[in-house]
């Protein structure tokens, strides 16, 4: 147990899906997992363990942003022996080739967060996904016939940026696909503690064109994303 998690040793599977929203964690558990049980409810940051296609898997909410995500990832890896972290969430689009409902898989994650940048002194560390997980996710998306984009994303600590889209201009110019708020920390902590990590996002609103996904399409798109993540987490 930790100050943020009352799960017992063994309560988590070796692979954990990481949505930010606790209610999305609950929805994933109730919608996709068999025999799911709640293993953590401290601060309402809900965690569940069940099975998918007969294989054990967990889902744990991380809250919003990298400081909160860092706490849960650190404890999952060091206290509960988790080996694979797969962030599942939404992102804003920074590239017009990515359309709403498309799947974005983060091969690498830039960041403005001191959670990552402050740990490496004069170096700019490049947090990247595990290649085997990435390849499996692409294959799963293609098997479902889903539009999928693989490339750089950015994890920002600022949601309402005072400079608006201009804040991301250099990243856009270098082909970054989307912006979200957690992936860089997930990748960094996985690297630090010898685990595997991946981020799979659904693009729900394009910051360049203003196109947004409607509520019905959002839900069906999240279904696709979660099924890809579960396939990767359980090895198919």
Automatic annotation (TrEMBL):
Residues 16-226 form the Nucleoside phosphorylase domain. A purine D-ribonucleoside binds at residues 4, 180-182, 204-205. Keywords: Glycosyltransferase, Transferase. It catalyses: uridine + phosphate = alpha-D-ribose 1-phosphate + uracil; a purine 2'-deoxy-D-ribonucleoside + phosphate = a purine nucleobase + 2-deoxy-alpha-D-ribose 1-phosphate; a purine D-ribonucleoside + phosphate = a purine nucleobase + alpha-D-ribose 1-phosphate. GO terms for biological process: purine nucleoside catabolic process. The active site is at 205 (proton donor). Phosphate binds at residues 20, 24, 43, 87-90. GO terms for cellular component: cytosol. One of its GO terms (molecular function) is uridine phosphorylase activity. CDD domains: PNP_EcPNPI-like. HAMAP family: Pur_nucleosid_phosp. Homohexamer; trimer of homodimers. This is Purine nucleoside phosphorylase DeoD-type. The gene is deoD.
